[in-house]
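User: Good morning. I'm curious how octanoyl-coenzyme A would be positioned relative to this chain. Could you predict the structure with it bound?
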Amino acid sequence: MNPRCNSQLISHNSSINIHDTLLLINIFRPKQLFPMYNTILTETKGHIQQITINRPKQLNALNKETIGELHEALKAADTDANIGVIILTGSGEKSFVAGADIKEFADFSVPQGGELAQKGQEILFSFIENLSTPVIAAVNGFALGGGLELAMCSHMRVASSNARMGLPEVSLGVIPGYGGTQRLAQLVGRGKANEMVFTAGMIKVDEALKWGLVNYVVEPEELMAKAEEIAGKILNNSGTAIASAIRSVNASYQDGVNGYDVEIEEFAKCFGTDDFKEGTTAFLEKRKPNFRG
Ligand code: CO8
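Assistant: Good morning! Here's the predicted structure, ligand included:
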């Protein structure tokens, strides 16, 4: 609805008080024009949802509010039939995310630390990994601690040449708590992961690329274009099949789950989808598929 309609609606009813007015504005607020978030920005570009962590003065450090807002924005994008790919990035040119907000947990107790890590993993890091919509991290600068963990739980990573990555937690007297000890070893192998965690050092993108921590490295001004190029290729394909592929790939990292069995199950499910009918029919009719999944 055009926002001007809201003000007309309100001005024609003089008995409405300020609370009713605010309620009406909230009900009729066009969500994409006036997003409710304080610490992130969202932008829809065709079938791509870009989510930008927007705390540049704190180098986009993740506080509780940011983690909650990211959860909401990701959930909204994942359930939006119009969205086929999510791109996560940081505001400004210096930092993707410089970690969890140290000020927020500096005086935490053991139970509070446990709760922080557990909740964060549940609503953001494992949540992203298990979304049905592919998430590309466009790493535009520092990706440290929780920032690198955020990039690592995304389904793939593109980095700008100025990016620096590390898990500096042991220099603060803690360890990575948002899945870093697990996912870094999965991505680069245990030896390199141990080196990064134990030394708390930062690596540059040439090493990150060599180790398989990032998929591509490009100049900063080309970062979003590269992420969107990959997104464009993904968007040509079946969304339901990609969601099945995510579940199947993730299964191989789950304890007590046989990834091959999950693959068979997911493979079989594809045969009942409209996308499968469309994909195979389009091939046989020598035309491009028009996927709706
Ligand atoms: N948290 C809070 N504030 C931060 C953070 C952070 N992680 N990183 C940077 N900032 C703030 C700085 O305090 C500073 O604020 P101010 O201007 O108010 O002093 C502002 O951002 C700019 O930073 P700098 O002046 O330090 O900028 P530099 O260019 O000199 O340095 C660095 C940039 C190297 C990135 C430096 O800021 C730095 O080392 N930051 C901390 C990096 C870090 O240790 N990250 C890991 C945090 S721990 C973590 O992520 C744990 C995750 C798991 C938690 C699980 C739950 C317990």
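Confidence is low (pLDDT under 50) at residues 1-16, 18-31. Strands lie at 40-45, 48-53, 85-90, 95-97, 135-139, 142-144, 156-160, 164-166, 202-204, 216-218.
Let me know if you'd like a different ligand tried.
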